[in-house]
Amino acid sequence: MDIDICPRCTNKIDPTDSFCRHCGIRVGEVAWYHTKIFVLASAFILLGPFALPLLLSSRDFTRNGKVFWSLAICAYTLGLVLLGAVIVARMYQYMIESALGR
């Protein structure tokens, strides 16, 4: 008999069960929009922090995985915002210098 592990509570579950007997989470097939590759690709390529609800509602990630990827997405977004701010500041500085003839 094959035994699986619940992604939420990490207790053993029977593969024929639809729900975990310990925590009640639905187990089985994961919808395509809750798969790891889709959630991470949408977070890092398209949506940024707006993909966090997808990540947090996905059963494909463990609790620690959700924390790790949430922090990674927030750090990535902060990095992009800071990079954008640096680019805008340098463009502004260049425009001021060219207007003053330096």
Question: What does this 3D model show about the protein?
Answer:
The chain is mainly alpha-helical and 102 residues long. The chain has helices at residues 36-47, 52-57, 63-100; strands at residues 4-5, 12-13. A hairpin with a 6-residue loop joins strand 1 (4-5) and strand 2 (12-13). Strands 1-2 form a two-stranded antiparallel sheet. The radius of gyration is 22 Å and the shape is rod-shaped. The chain has three helices and two strands. The protein folds into two domains: 1-30; 32-100.
Task: Please name the defining characteristics of this protein.
single chain; 2 domains; mainly alpha; two-stranded antiparallel ribbon; 55% helix; 3 helices
Quick overview:
The chain is mostly helical.
Low-confidence stretches: none
Q: Shape, please?
A: rod-shaped
In total, how many domains does the architecture comprise?
Answer: 2
Average pLDDT for all residues: 85
**From the helix content, strand content and strand pairing, which structural class follows?**
mainly alpha
| Total DSSP E strands | 2
Arrangement of strands in the largest sheet: 1-2
Strand content: under 5%
If helices are DSSP runs of H or I spanning 4 or more residues, what is the number of helices?
Answer: 3
Could you describe the largest sheet, including whether it forms a barrel? Answer: 2 strands, antiparallel
Radius of gyration: 22 Å
Distance between the termini: 78 Å
Q: From N to C, what is the helix and strand string? A: EEHHH
Amount of helix? 40-55%
